[in-house]
# Entry
Amino acid sequence: MASRISTYAEFWPFYLREHAAPLTRQVHALGTGLGLLLLLVAQVLGPWWLVLAALMAGYGFAWLSHMLVERNRPASFKHPWWSLISDFRMAWCMLTGTLGAELAKAGVTPGR
# Structure
């Protein structure tokens, strides 16, 4: 990843290009959803280790998808906060049906 990315507005299209494969996006969404569910259960039931499990689910699924599907290095290694924000933004776009337009603006071809 180029270190010249200095704003989130520049990062978001880069993030989407690094998640070009639909399977990568689906695995990310699964990890994000599972992580949120585990955090909710931790809040209600209280076991502290569920917070650790939530982090492992969220990042584990994402990192495995980059290693096995995209074959690239996760953006979270250089921009952890922007990556976290973008994970939630991408999941929201998937839920609301707006991801296709965002991918097109970023230059990601359909079905890649």
